[in-house]
Amino acid sequence: MVEICRKDFFTKHYNKQAKSDSRNYNFYPKTWILPQEYAAFLTYARKNPHPAYIVKPANGAMGMGIRLYRNVESVPSSSSQYGPCVVQEYVTNPYLIDGFKFDLRVYVLITSCCPLRIFVYNEGLVRLSAERYKDPMGPNGESMYRHLTNYAVNRKHHAYMKTNDETDGNKRSFAFLEDYLARHAGLSDCRMLWRRIRNLVVKTVILAAPHVYHGYRLFHHSEDYRCSSGTPSGSTTTTTTTSSETRFGGFNGRGGGSTHSAAFEILGFDVILDADLKPWLLEVNRSPSFGVDQSLDLRVKSGLLRDALALINIRASDKRRSEEWQRAHAVQRLLNPTTTALNAVCDTKLWQCSGTLKSKYLASDWLKNPRDLLNRINGIRERLGKMHREADLECFENSNCGNWRRVYPTMDKTLEQRYTTLMVNVFTEFNKGRPGDVDRVIPASLSESQKEEELRQQLYYLEKESAKLVKQRVNDKIPLPQQPKTQHQQHHRQQQQHHLRVLNTGASTPPTFPPRYCFREKWCSRNQSAVSMFSHPFWEDPNGLAESDEEGEEEVKKEEEEGSGGKEFLYRF
């Protein structure tokens, strides 16, 4: 998540979206990257004077290197000793608690990047400054202890107070904040405030979604490994996000499914409220501190870690299963031919008007490319399986989330549609005008349940077409769906055509076999494409002539003793 945790990267992404969608991206103070945008900053600041500006290192933390400037001309044009930096309009009208400036540390959990799943913890920290707030334009207004709320800065001040009372001291609870706003701001219901903060969190993470997914796909370039965690390197990736599809194999995540990984990422969002109680994002911390120095820290941080580990469903067998899956996947990748992309299910050229599939017109079309029919069937099955896995995952999350609350995907259809629009816009910008793989990042929403019946109907008719083609291929002696590319494949094609002739004419003359063969279902490494052809629904034995493995082996031995060729579906080793 470095794309939103580094201030210069986040500023670049945020400003780009704010230009085209200022209505949704209006929660971050106006910011410029130094030194690249120094001239633009001076031009804007001279036309639109602001009381104060704050300069922050682009990759800084714990308040290091932060400076406050009241004169725009005094802002340095070059990078500081901490490297590249940003200059930002200072929020001069913050809401105060007993005269002290404060910010909110909001904890965010990301359990998956493909599809994206975001949670916000219901508890957090209200962090107060060590000195009472003063206008930065006034006398003695430049003290950083009045303007910074970072624990690393204020703990050094003599007035910093540690206490086990969650309503006193420089660290307080969210419950105290709600009570304080009810008593002093007349805000008896804080749900709208928390809703704004949740929206801020989701919109911020959406900015990083295409970059994280890009790094994830680079690391896990195999389509089948869609569900494991990645550790992609570079400045545009995150090392702790993962897809959710295989972390929960069975219902409620406790079934027999495999768990390739259980990676996650916890972020710390620093949010400040202005005098109108509008939340503003200050920064996103990639590695928030989990150190404790008072009871509030212990309660909040231990609780969120415990609930996070329960939510991601870490099990002792995860590592072993992941290693076994990777070995099996490597073997499969080496032996299997490249599979056809499964997005063919979106092609509706063969569908008739009114969305009705008329089976009697399709057989001749599928005969031109029967492999396409199989790809479409597999694609619909995979899509239905994904919908079921996400439904099971949602059930697990609802019963094991503890104090975490899922904010994306959301149950609010209007809000879900708004987030989807933002996601498409961000991916389109990232892919230079094309939405790319945004559909893989957006989880199956509530509208998918309405499409399930349509998908099942499509699958029903396509399977009928498959059954019809099996019969047509046997009766009409239709040639194989693929032209073999090698001499070895050509040899097996002749054998399979001979098997088809046996079924149709009753011929008993056996073909000439190479030295090593195995039974039909045990075709291992000699020719994997032959396996796929024999297991293809078009080539199933329509008359039930093929015996089981054990029966086949016994028949081979009997043939060797009697000198008989036997049935054509039996091979010798």
Automatic annotation (TrEMBL):
<feature type="region of interest" description="Disordered">
    <location>
        <begin position="539"/>
        <end position="573"/>
    </location>
</feature>
<dbReference type="GO" id="GO:0015631">
    <property type="term" value="F:tubulin binding"/>
</dbReference>
<dbReference type="GO" id="GO:0070740">
    <property type="term" value="F:tubulin-glutamic acid ligase activity"/>
</dbReference>
<feature type="compositionally biased region" description="Basic residues">
    <location>
        <begin position="488"/>
        <end position="499"/>
    </location>
</feature>
<feature type="region of interest" description="Disordered">
    <location>
        <begin position="228"/>
        <end position="248"/>
    </location>
</feature>
<dbReference type="InterPro" id="IPR004344">
    <property type="entry name" value="TTL/TTLL_fam"/>
</dbReference>
<keyword id="KW-0436">Ligase</keyword>
<dbReference type="Pfam" id="PF03133">
    <property type="entry name" value="TTL"/>
</dbReference>
<dbReference type="GO" id="GO:0036064">
    <property type="term" value="C:ciliary basal body"/>
</dbReference>
<protein>
    <submittedName>
        <fullName>Tubulin polyglutamylase TTLL7</fullName>
    </submittedName>
</protein>
<keyword id="KW-0547">Nucleotide-binding</keyword>
<dbReference type="GO" id="GO:0005524">
    <property type="term" value="F:ATP binding"/>
</dbReference>
<keyword id="KW-0067">ATP-binding</keyword>
<feature type="region of interest" description="Disordered">
    <location>
        <begin position="480"/>
        <end position="499"/>
    </location>
</feature>
<dbReference type="GO" id="GO:0000226">
    <property type="term" value="P:microtubule cytoskeleton organization"/>
</dbReference>
